[in-house]
Specification:
alpha/beta; two-stranded antiparallel ribbon; 8 strands; 18% strand
Length: 237
Amino acid sequence: MNSGPVDVLVAGGGGFIGGHLVADLLAQGKTVRSVDVKPIDEWYQVHPDAQNSVGDLSLLDQAEAATEGAREVYMLAADMGGMGFIENNKALCMLTVLTSTHMLQAAQKYDVERYFYSSSACVYAADKQTDPGVTALKESDAYPAMPEDGYGWEKLFSERMARHFREDFGLTTRMARYHNVYGPRAPGPAAARRRPPPCAARSPRRSSPASTSSRSGATASRPGRSCTSTTASRARR
């Protein structure tokens, strides 16, 4: 898996967001290692200028092999496939804590300079996302905690781990909480339906059902839900 030092490791680089991230990093002139659990022929994008490897980062030895020699880490790897998936696979979503934990341990072991963790709007309590006036959320609104069951709890717990690795071990960590993500190369016809309707773009106070996707690419409407992150990178078959 490891082919010498690189500027950046993208964990979950075979996913939708990961593929775009690898492309951007390469365009900046950085050397990139891209690792994903899926076979390479199932990746959203494959960039020949990157070091592309298949690896299960939930295993500590593979997380360490992927991280060794990387100056920065972007941790996007997760069991995720849209709201349909996370509503019906809570245990699998929680097991992503193994990947989150082992990647932090590997980053500490190899003195990574900067570590980014890809979180989700699912960390916010549902009762803070029901206002039709679209009241803006603040970072602090994640507490008192009552996140999305399964996936949201894992994301929030892993945020705390990243924070404590910074406080206790000096690892420079940063996090971002994605809401709805769509764009070029998004999976199937569901991508178009995730785009905000024109009426919503013109009038943010008007509510509309959130389109959601499962790992099969099917869509369903879940009115009133804002937690629709689509960081698919570790699909199991």
